[in-house]
Amino acid sequence: MVEEKSIQEFKSGDEIQGFFIIKKIEMKLSTNNKNFLDLTVSDKTGEINGKVWGCQEGQDKDFPTGSLIKVRGNITEWKGKLQLKINLMRLVNEDDGKNIEDYIQGAPIKPEEMFDEIYEYVQKIKNKDIKNIVEKIILESKEKLMYYPAAKSLHHAIRSGLMYHILRMLRTGEKLSEVYANVNKDLLFAGILLHDIEKLEELNSDELGIAEYSKEGQLLGHISMGMNKISQVGQELGANEEIIMILKHMVLSHHYEPEFGSPKKPMIPEGELLHYIDMIDARMYDMEDHLKNIEPGEFTAPIWSLENRRLYKTSF
Amino acid sequence: MVEEKSIQEFKSGDEIQGFFIIKKIEMKLSTNNKNFLDLTVSDKTGEINGKVWGCQEGQDKDFPTGSLIKVRGNITEWKGKLQLKINLMRLVNEDDGKNIEDYIQGAPIKPEEMFDEIYEYVQKIKNKDIKNIVEKIILESKEKLMYYPAAKSLHHAIRSGLMYHILRMLRTGEKLSEVYANVNKDLLFAGILLHDIEKLEELNSDELGIAEYSKEGQLLGHISMGMNKISQVGQELGANEEIIMILKHMVLSHHYEPEFGSPKKPMIPEGELLHYIDMIDARMYDMEDHLKNIEPGEFTAPIWSLENRRLYKTSF
Amino acid sequence: MVEEKSIQEFKSGDEIQGFFIIKKIEMKLSTNNKNFLDLTVSDKTGEINGKVWGCQEGQDKDFPTGSLIKVRGNITEWKGKLQLKINLMRLVNEDDGKNIEDYIQGAPIKPEEMFDEIYEYVQKIKNKDIKNIVEKIILESKEKLMYYPAAKSLHHAIRSGLMYHILRMLRTGEKLSEVYANVNKDLLFAGILLHDIEKLEELNSDELGIAEYSKEGQLLGHISMGMNKISQVGQELGANEEIIMILKHMVLSHHYEPEFGSPKKPMIPEGELLHYIDMIDARMYDMEDHLKNIEPGEFTAPIWSLENRRLYKTSF
Amino acid sequence: MVEEKSIQEFKSGDEIQGFFIIKKIEMKLSTNNKNFLDLTVSDKTGEINGKVWGCQEGQDKDFPTGSLIKVRGNITEWKGKLQLKINLMRLVNEDDGKNIEDYIQGAPIKPEEMFDEIYEYVQKIKNKDIKNIVEKIILESKEKLMYYPAAKSLHHAIRSGLMYHILRMLRTGEKLSEVYANVNKDLLFAGILLHDIEKLEELNSDELGIAEYSKEGQLLGHISMGMNKISQVGQELGANEEIIMILKHMVLSHHYEPEFGSPKKPMIPEGELLHYIDMIDARMYDMEDHLKNIEPGEFTAPIWSLENRRLYKTSF
Amino acid sequence: MVEEKSIQEFKSGDEIQGFFIIKKIEMKLSTNNKNFLDLTVSDKTGEINGKVWGCQEGQDKDFPTGSLIKVRGNITEWKGKLQLKINLMRLVNEDDGKNIEDYIQGAPIKPEEMFDEIYEYVQKIKNKDIKNIVEKIILESKEKLMYYPAAKSLHHAIRSGLMYHILRMLRTGEKLSEVYANVNKDLLFAGILLHDIEKLEELNSDELGIAEYSKEGQLLGHISMGMNKISQVGQELGANEEIIMILKHMVLSHHYEPEFGSPKKPMIPEGELLHYIDMIDARMYDMEDHLKNIEPGEFTAPIWSLENRRLYKTSF
Amino acid sequence: MVEEKSIQEFKSGDEIQGFFIIKKIEMKLSTNNKNFLDLTVSDKTGEINGKVWGCQEGQDKDFPTGSLIKVRGNITEWKGKLQLKINLMRLVNEDDGKNIEDYIQGAPIKPEEMFDEIYEYVQKIKNKDIKNIVEKIILESKEKLMYYPAAKSLHHAIRSGLMYHILRMLRTGEKLSEVYANVNKDLLFAGILLHDIEKLEELNSDELGIAEYSKEGQLLGHISMGMNKISQVGQELGANEEIIMILKHMVLSHHYEPEFGSPKKPMIPEGELLHYIDMIDARMYDMEDHLKNIEPGEFTAPIWSLENRRLYKTSF
Lengths: 316, 316, 316, 316, 316, 316
What we know:
By secondary structure, the first copy, chain A, is an alpha+beta fold. Chain A contains 9 helices and 8 strands.
């Protein structure tokens, strides 16, 4: 029997029907020289690879990336991963009464709420120069922040993922500064708010949060670009030179290791904390994301972004 | 004029007098073939290298490690480091009315208070098996925990340093679990409480918190030893097999990288957090420790334990 | 003409018939959306990948792993490797008069003989404590030792491969201790006998010697598990503390490099020798295994387990 | 007999007299508790370490860094290196009729000549935007360029060393672009002219070319600072966006390896060439510098900046 | 409409016809168990992968490597790479009036011209011993030099590629020795002429410049083989011992890093230059080769031989 | 009381007298500007650093390296190492009746005996070509083999150390080939006999076994030189090409890792064994050498040649 299921509920052998968003679509040639469509489709609960066998040249043009489709198909398994063999597929029409918003994989908090909370943290910064720089940059970035992911394919690669990442880091930063009370909270909050801000230019994202690298992103990277942004805004606002320098140092050093893009390591405690808070949030996101799909007592498949570790879900 | 100063206040050119503890003492031969004493002395505020020039063979025997001495001398500078040239030195006697307790470099919180707070965290563990294992080990370790340092010469190498390290990690762990609410607090607390527990056997420490590696420490290391401890206690208590295994996995993986002693990386989120909490506490300790001696706007000398970084103290 | 051949004799173009064991079997979907069976089959002389094209959903259930089958098919070549295209295939029945024992790839010496020789080495250990620990562990492990491989897919991944590995290492150890006469033979033999013993728990193997990692194997690894075993047995027997510690050190350090699982390098000559004897036996096994299939004057394909080296077979 | 010699001519055993510049001076305490002066002195031909034994506290204040002194002393050898034991030393006075200019170790071409030649290269740039950016930066930097070294202690750590480095690279770049004719000369020249330009801010140098790192230099480094400079000037001049981006990319990538400060590798041929031209000039400088002091058929001591290689001077 | 196009002009969707050389041909089995031919074909402008679907067993034998064929087919795209689906294919016959020479991908200068220019450089060597060794080796190698590529699949893997590589390096070397005038030109030219000379024995190449590794090449490598060659010829000619040694040192060290085959780094400036000249020529070749296929303002795909960098083509 | 002791028996505080050989002697200047002699002296049991304080310029010339001296002095301790403070010292004269032979640290077997045993192994080689090459080289090397050490300062840096190293490796090789019976003994013996043979030219040793690197040794290394030797001799004797190539491959690959000098890893089992046999002998030598000086239950100081491991001496 055909069941209406969300992606997270799929099991090998299911015959399913549902609504999904197209994240990627490509016409390919099988080794027996027949055309087929290779897609990635998603809903709120996850994403899955799908195939449409034996289709016409050009059929991919009818289904642009980002459209909401209705699908009927079978779930099969290939090398330990589920796959969706699509038997029927069409674009959603008005009669379906479906809203694409309900199918987008995004941060679990509403963008407006997240922005408000982030903006409160900006207000907590006491040093005028630091606050002014951060506030100007955050306000100018607001429009993109509302939907930008934090990555093309790594952690927080979901709609509004970048803001969600910043928000959880701010919460963590605030709590850590209660334990490590010597830390300069102004600097720590500013570092968190600005560290990834030029991902907004390093990536080109559509409103669904699907992103590609920009030209400048590839040639310069968000760290260099972020430092430049701080220089510009800092000079416009006539901020203190040392403050500009230190904010740039925090952005420069937040990846920590040269091979991950930071030619300098943090030379201030707030920079050190920024790095670890960043790592913790990225790793907790990835781990949660992979563990949600397995049963207690099981291991995940090796996870590339975690150096091919397999994660284990405890059963107690 | 001779001033009574604590070590942290020393400046090159001072003529000082004060009371200090001997941490290391060795008779050496200068290149012009004269005996001299080479010492490390400390008080609550820090430690310094000292020399007694032109002394008698055997004079080092009169001043055993750990004794409190009265010293008069001059502060000089050698390769950018202060040095104490000792002109007069004798053991403290009753008339001095000094208490060695007041000169020991130790954690800033009293051991009993720290233990009580740590023990409260033990009580917060809800899973019976986890709690039983942790409680038994912590209670059995209490005596040593009261004064053990966390290292021979790295971070927290002070009296009661290990407990101070554990305590701040517990506080951090509790706060992080408010942001990352899926985390199993029982596991996280247990991991923090047990991760370094066999430093109590890896090191041999005197009551001043001055430590050397034990034989077993060198041949096996505190990670292997800690896993063994958990096995033993877990079996005695008839604890659930998976719980024993997971606690051992947390200890095994907490150094994260093979070259730092962990052959496996964490495969559960609580192990991942444990590692980062450990790093944060060690780094914040080291950074505070080095920054306290410099002025705003200055850099420290390169710090070995921080990959030879020089730290900067902001002036705003 | 259809020939009855063993796997080692296969050549591209052959039409063959024979009896084989199924080591792995999986139903897959070809890129033209047809089901096919993908198998690994083996006999005493080697293993080969096979395909059954155009088969029914569920057909894989009729042929469980470990069963002996009769096959007719063609040998083809794919990317420099032979492949078996299966035309006919059925389970062996009584009339075939075949014994699965004759088709299992296993150590070239009978398990009972190997065990006896290994046990003789145990008897050669003079130190009572060492002997008692080793003897207890070896006797308790006997049942599994009889058929366990030494690995899932690396060297000695054959039935009784672990025991064969231990045995050849003992022979080598004995000979080396004639050249390096200062070496403590008791320790060396004990180290060899125990170094991999917890592969019996790190892996779950069936009686054909086909293995998967266990949960504990993945989370802790055979080195940690082996150390724990020695602790337990040593304490039960009330053995000398230093002996327990040294035996654990040998297990801990036998992989030599942190990135291969040993956080400590050997600190005793017997541990150093153990490592090299282990390496030699693994490498000689792998090299023999790959060279047997090529002609003098030829190179093998790159071999993954030998860092992608190609081996050469001399022609003189 | 006392001979008037330049530093390059010193031999162990010489009794010498001459005029030298003080590059570094420090009062130290010998292990037998006597004060001595530890100096580095230089003339046009090289530098040497010197000692003044048994001197008064404060005597170092009479001889500030950068002063020209008259010295009489003996040349001795210590661990394979020559050393100057100073017997007499005084500041130069008018009667000596000496000009400090004649004793400074500097580039072998006059600064004005070098600047003129460099400026000619600027004029050879045909693209208006590139030329404008480069010209503005070079002209604004002229004053410092006249005397800045290229490093604190590595290659070209001499007066006007940075300009000499740039000049020889331009000559090389021009010649290479004759062989590799597809290369965009405008870009190549611009990259050479700008790649190290912020060494003028990364270092603080006096007019003798003796330098220390600046605060910003340590926290940000000349690569980040150079990119920022190009952004600023480019925007002021309203230059084409892609040109600004590419010039920044060349600065960003010219150290080539992350661990040497470049988070991106060159993605254009001109960036690739820039890197190799930079390496060649640095290495040829270092090699010449070390080989000039040895005889044909001999090896130098291990050279730190050349990964501890010893160089050989051929005798044919 | 079917167009006559060269490979560089192909675009996805084209229906083309043309003449090409077979560089590689293999019969394969598709996953739906049908035979197909998998080829690499080339002309002067590049190479492309091609497929002939549904062909007969043995058909590959009719089209040996190195033959010139006439093809009709369609250009498709597969994973971002163009592919040629061959519909018709036959060997060229006399009536076609085609000359294989016009389809071989080779150096852009005629072999005879290149050899003459190289030989002129030999004549510029003034030192008799160096000249004699180089001349003898170059003359003996002439026949192979005329067509040998410099590699199996890396830079300069085209007909006469090795000579083209040597020639451009000689031109560069000559120019660099104008800037770095202390360099011994005899040595530099000799090093360039001999550094890769045993690629003539490390590889076995056919006259089209298509090569495989020889047995000796795999077991010893062209560096060891080249040193041996110099020893032999040097001794035959009774050359000066130091000269032989230095020439061998240049060959030994020209790959610079142990992991690329040089156990020693250059200890003479000429060896240092040789390395960088070699790198520059290899890199410029690779970059030109990849950039020629993209439009200004675009990036290439990641390039394996350039550590997976993507190159950018500037649009100004 | 003054005691006659050998170096191994020295204890801190001893007043000793004895005969020793000078291995190194240098006149130095103390930091208080007095001359002193810095020596290394040895006898059969070990070596020790010594000082003669307050001596005359030129006094070192009276005591050339390699002379036997009579010494009276005191044993002191400096940084955990014993040192000999020499009070009286003179060259041995006829009346002393001492033979330098009795004081040289050398292999524990007589050179002639070792050579005879080595030569027997040569005779065991059955393949004529292999035997001829090996025999010629060994016979030609005999004179130097009698006294050459295997290193300047690493393992087997004693008189006749190279031959001792070869001999124990041959014994080990013979035994291993009993366990791994497929191994070609001719190749294995030849590889062992030739692998380090050009240390005879890489080093310049005096008859006491004290060595320095030769010019060729530094520029080319014994691996390259050894390959060349085999080529030469092989060609002279008209040996089979493959045999020459394989013997060279064994020499080339015996250090195994590029960073230790082998650009290729062994591609034949005999080469693999050669490497491990070499490692075992070097390590067993070093370990024995360091363990002989400590008591059971103790650790050595960190040993540089063993990656700074500390060794432990078991007490059972």
